[in-house]
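Just curious: can you write a single protein's sequence together with how it folds?
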Amino acid sequence: MLRRSVLVGVASLLLTAAPLVAAGETMRGTSLLLAASKDDVAAIKILLADGVQIDARDDSGATALLVATHVNGIEAARALIEAGADVNAKDKIEDSPYLYAGARGHLDILKMTLAHGADLKSINRYGGTALIPASERGHVETVRTLIEAGVDVDHVNRLGWTALLEAIILGDGGKRHQKIVDLLVKAGADVNLADGKGVTPLQHARAYGHDAIERILAVAGAH
């Protein structure tokens, strides 16, 4: 009877301890996410050495690495990536450290993700590669880096647009977008690949009054 009582007591203690352990892990994961948001490398290294799960997530599904990428925390991102953080781990809206760095022009972090297994074929919630929003937002060096990495320059997103079309339709026609169009053309982008309504890049450039871009396309054989 005494032995059974002891066993019951041990079982009860374990059941009580389990939620406490889980809560402790959650708190430590939260601490890692907070350290990442502050680009606090020292805290990150201490927490990882203490066994915190490196890919713990917040309520949005973001890992510490994605949180660091959100704030362009280069050193935090470096520490996490070198410790094995997943550069392709997506949150609930389909952003990953690689995709977000590309879209926002966080070039240093982007290069680190590319050096540590970034999936060049991964797509965001709009069905686009990292190259498409980078082209739209005028991140010239990011576009150059992604092209050199081998991202498909003619990938079409759910809107029916390529990187070239987004640079023209959503860009301002200025020097940054002119350079991006030139980079895409020289990388072999199909200058006659139309959108879902059959409108070509050249037609869009004319419609938006992007004269310099129109000339780049015309020289490349656009019609």
The mean pLDDT is 92. The CA atoms of residues 87 and 116 lie 7 Å apart.
